[in-house]
Amino acid sequence: MCDVEGGGGGCGADAEPPRRRRAPADSQPRTCMKCRQSTAALVIRVGDPFCRGCFREYFVHKFRAMLGKNRVIFPGEKVLLAVSGGPASSAMVRQVQEGLSREAAKRLRFIPGLVYIEEGAVRRQSPEQRQQTLAQMETLLQATGFPYHLLHLEEALELPPSILQPGPERTGPSGPSYKEAVDSFIQQQRQDGDSGTCLPAHSTPDRPAGATPRLPDAAQTQELLRIFEAATTATAREELLETLRTHLIVQTARDKGYAKVMTGESLTRVAIKLLTNLSLGRGAYLAVDTGFTDQRHGDVMVVRPMRDYTAKEIAFYNRFFGVPTVAVPPLFTKRREKLSIHQLVERFLLGLQEEFPSTISTVYRTGEKLSPEPAKASSESQRCLLCLCGLDTIGEEELALEPTLIWEEPAPGVESKAAYIPLLCYSCRLTFKELGPLDTLPPYMRAEGQRRIRRAEMEQNQENQESSEN
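Below the sequence we write its predicted structure tokens.
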């Protein structure tokens, strides 16, 4: 045996690499790298000191440049901003507020709305705590002046099965180009005598003014908890929560006529999500899961304008300029349960970032080189039931797919969980196996799965009949 702890110079003597030494802090105040006059208030990266004024200009410019470079949000479009109350989504809302103000040099030209999904039931909050969080969020949403929608995660149980089907794309090849759309919008504003701002005069909730936000019925909350408690791992619950949240946001966008949805994933969160999804077997879909645009839903495009900001930049911006946030507890875990893959990857990356400051940005840049083509599906039979990406199991060897299969012998007349497996991609198969019995699935998922299973059986019977006739 090698002498690991002793001083005998065994193979374990140098098992732990020496820690990287940090450079000693400069006792003299540093000067802003941009204006070269003011004293720096923060250092974003090594060698990048900024004063408050220049940091604000840098932060605002990065947001406008991200939208201007990609040119996917057309003038006059309705855009739904998904707000969680966290630092990134709150900073995103502030950027949109400032971009629509009359004082902005280059105003944004879309029409914003806000949506907040209250998830207190699966975060083990009491009814009083949920009401308090709702009141705090409504105060923040009202202060923006934008129309807003307050939803509960329980409402996802009432989603229609059509949410698992991509809608028709709103803009086709014959539509106007971005430049033509901008010119037409400006000309229309001049004719109307408008100054160019799209900022609403006041916020409008979905319910009567002055009414207190109501919590869902206790029966709905218990049904939601039953679904989450049936999941056997923390990883499956994390994936289920993200799926329900995404479907609820997209359905709200469809119902309210929004063409785009903005989410607040930061550069740090994108890097964590990239490695997490890679660990979950979603390597083929990394480009749509973490890219600037996600078009898998067809009629509603998901946009991530905050993905160039690190968590450090967002934290300093919110602190310097008074951006309010609302903290919520994490998703519940069972007793003596192992951490989810999401939590393990986050700890791993943030731990590396402390010693090697370029870790997060390096992982992020790697994701920039990926193509979204593998996620596209040409037909319903080649599309995953849950994530709506193209199936990555077609053509794979049987041995490679064996971990995703479900071996069961259901009683006669009883629906089989194994019948859903061919409808899912590799990653969703693994999650589906850990979600519990079929009666604990959200109703809309089960209904759409049954429809696709019946359709596949009808097509198979028709093929068998044609082959027998020939």
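The radius of gyration is 25 Å.
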